[in-house]
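ARCHIVE CARD
Drawer: 12
Card no.: 0347
Subject: one protein chain, sequence and derived structure
Cross-reference: see card 0346
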Amino acid sequence: MMESKGSHKWTKNILNELDINPKIVVCAKKAGYVSASSILGASHNELEEKLGLSSFHIKNFIDAVTSHVLPKKTSAWDLSQTGEGDPKHITLGCQNLDNFLGGGVPAQGITEMTGQSGSGKTQIALQLSLCAQLPPVAGGLGKGVAYICTESQFPTARLQQMVKHFKAQHSKGPASYTDGIFVHHIPDMDSLVDCVRYQLPCLLSQRPIGLVVLDSVASPFRAEESNMENKNLLYTLGYQLHQLAATYHIAIVAINQVTSVIGNNNLYGHSGNVVPTLGLTWANLVTTRLMIGRTDSHVQAEQTEGSRQVKKSSSKTIVEYNVRELEVIFCPWLGKKSCPFVVTSKGIEDVE
């Protein structure tokens, strides 16, 4: 099997290319951690133990490797010197959620939305697919969407239901929202990587696309036996997504599943009893991780056609909605916090 350029980037010896303390290079080489794949695929504690170095040195080591293999990130200082503002965002169509996320979902890096089945991940992805097509003045990008399905058929009926309500809310959108969503079904891991490596760049070069949704990243890899070749494919997938985000200034939203764990020491501080699948291999490639889940709370409300908020009602027809929660697990510019929302026939809505 011919090794791709992207795959080689993860498997070759990169120690001599890193600008780090020579002591780290010597220890890493001695312990056999010489490639990006082996280094980023290990936990912080594992590297600390195997290399015999301090936590400070290991953090510098991981940061150096990540910076070496992923596209260069622009600092706030760089932006201030070039006169450019913050990265563009896609509104979620909900004021509270937009404020919570600092403007919406950024057209920068990879935003992962993870959670249990039925938590609302796909509902948010569908609403983002509509919002991305709004003009910038309305919080969108004025561009289309590439929606890659790996787990099930695209929810066309649900999208049509949301479009009906969405058009009533937004007069400045396109004539047809469905025409702006390009759907592709992927059956397996190799096909997914090939799609992102070859077919997706072709689409982005020919069409004005502002959002790429991968629903889900877990399914093709979870179905395969875990081995180093599959890890390398996952690295290649993440690297290519970062390259596309940086080159075309698009938002990348990857939906992930969760798996149950014993105890509370979950990845990156999530305090529940589940963690995202694909482990550290994928976690080190994600820019922003959002956990979506159901709560034990319910709200009794009636929907108004002119609002994207669910308001408590003492009259009219009462409908009960389960309150969901969007939690920031990690993000370079956001603290760890959460925000409630509900899923209605219109889509996702704020809870007032």
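Annotation on reverse: Confidence is low (pLDDT under 50) at residues 1-6, 74-85. The longest strand covers residues 288-302.
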